[in-house]
Write a structure and sequence with these properties.
By secondary structure, the chain is mainly α. The chain is 74% helix and 0% strand.
Amino acid sequence: MRVRNQVLWVLSVAAVAALYLSAYNMAFRVLSVGGSCASGGAHVIRQQCPSGTGHWTAWMMLSLFAGIVLLFVDGGNTRVTWFIWSAIFLGMGVGGIIGAVSAWPNLSTVIGLGVGCGLVGLVIALPGVVGLISGPDTVQKWKAKSEGRTAASVPTPSTGPSPRQLQKLLDLAEQHGRGELGDTAYAAAKAKILRQR
């Protein structure tokens, strides 16, 4: 079991790192040319994507799916898999900000477009920062809290007679012991007390 956990941990770290790296490179390339590009196909393309953009996009999708599969296989026990969310958003956000900054000196790029791409990168990075700050501990606390509410809302079954029933049964046993009640009357009275809940 320990070897399995270590293997899952290494695979999770690799998936999160690959996801961050590929999201960063894909966003950097797209936002460094203004935030919109295309490659291939039969249509006339105004802005070609920089070389490698398609490969980084494919790697991003592959590592994202690998991370999600690892999250389900592991059941969320490897804390690294919880950072998949942060990796994709921080990777794209930081790549976008740096891509916008690197496009700034290019005279063919409109300055407003560079600022816009930088803002887009910042907005994309924010969910990643929130996921990084809250992390798996917050999720585990929410999970424990909801499980606690569920357990508390289910009534616990009674395992024996109530204190009031117990007192009645003791009184009944005394009467039977003194001979005031026969065996049949005692059994009937006892059954009647136990049926009352």
